[in-house]
Write a structure and sequence with these properties.
Shape: elongated
GO cellular component, one term: cytosol
CATH architecture of the largest domain: 3-Layer(aba) Sandwich
Catalytic activity: 2-phosphoglycolate + H2O = glycolate + phosphate
Order of helices and strands: EEHHHHEHEHEHEHEEH
EC number: 3.1.3.18
Structural class: alpha/beta
Largest sheet: 6 strands, parallel
Cofactor: Mg(2+)
Strand order of the largest sheet: 5-4-1-6-7-8
CATH topology of the largest domain: Rossmann fold
Helix content: 40-55%
CATH class of the largest domain: Alpha Beta
Keywords: Carbohydrate metabolism, Hydrolase, Magnesium, Metal-binding
Length: 230
């Protein structure tokens, strides 16, 4: 009797902001710069954290909406550019990997897992941020909200990230922190792990993910519970 083929390598796809990287402090400052350009006050950091997850333009729009401001498209684009310029210059002033993330990535790589990023951040900023943090080379693919012309929760970026690392969707998992990530994973037909410390106003255990964990030290066990141990 022929021996059974070993399972395909596990593909682990991470969201970026609020999942792998604590980037809120620098995003808060970029939004404050855009708001100041319109003569508007700085929003509280905790409030801004709950606005994140849909990309930079959506963050600026949500910040303006919080102040009851509705601007013409041309002015909105000007403020969006203020945000991008400020963020580009200060992308990793205070951002850092979440506790335990580096060790978890080491364990996954040692097990043979394929690693990728799927974020709604613009691809060039995702690459730059991970490069500044010394983590870009860990990932076989870094997919941003503009990489495929559509953003999460459309499943195309997630499927594309899996394909770019040569992974199998049947042996893949999405690690995220928001409803957007959970919806993306469901649309792609793959399980999701929710990090409870991320950027969401909805309680993490109400997002509909398959597993919720509180620290990267729990990721290996979460993958075992999903039957996806690398």
């Amino acid at each position: 009797m022929p021996l059974a083929s070993p399972p395909a390598p596990l593909t682990v796809v991470f969201d970026l902001d609020g999942t792998l990287v604590e980037s809120a402090p620098d995003l808060v400052e970029a939004l404050a710069a855009a708001m100041a350009a319109e003569g508007l006050p700085r929003l509280p950091a905790d409030e801004v954290r709950g606005m994140m997850g849909a990309g930079a333009r959506a963050l600026v729009e949500r910040g303006l909406r919080a102040e009851g401001v509705d601007l013409p498209e041309e002015r909105m684009l000007e403020l969006y550019r203020v945000f991008l310029d400020h963020y580009d210059a200060h992308i990793a002033d205070r951002s850092h990997l979440f506790p335990g993330a580096e060790a978890a990535l080491d364990r996954l790589a040692a097990s043979g897992a394929k690693l990728a990023i799927c974020t709604n951040k613009l691809e060039r900023f995702a690459v730059k941020l991970l490069g500044e943090l010394g983590a870009a080379d860990r990932f076989g693919a870094i997919v941003g909200g503009d990489t495929f012309g559509v953003a999460k929760p459309d499943p195309k970026p997630l499927i594309g990230a899996i394909e770019r690392v040569g992974g199998d969707p049947a042996r893949a998992v999405m690690i995220g922190d928001s409803a957007t990530d959970v919806e993306t994973a469901k649309a792609a037909g793959i399980p999701s792990v929710v990090m409870s410390f991320g950027y969401t106003t909805t309680p993490p255990r109400e997002l509909g993910g398959d597993v919720v964990i509180d620290h990267f030290d729990e990721l290996d066990d979460a993958l075992r519970r999903l039957g996806l141990a690398a």
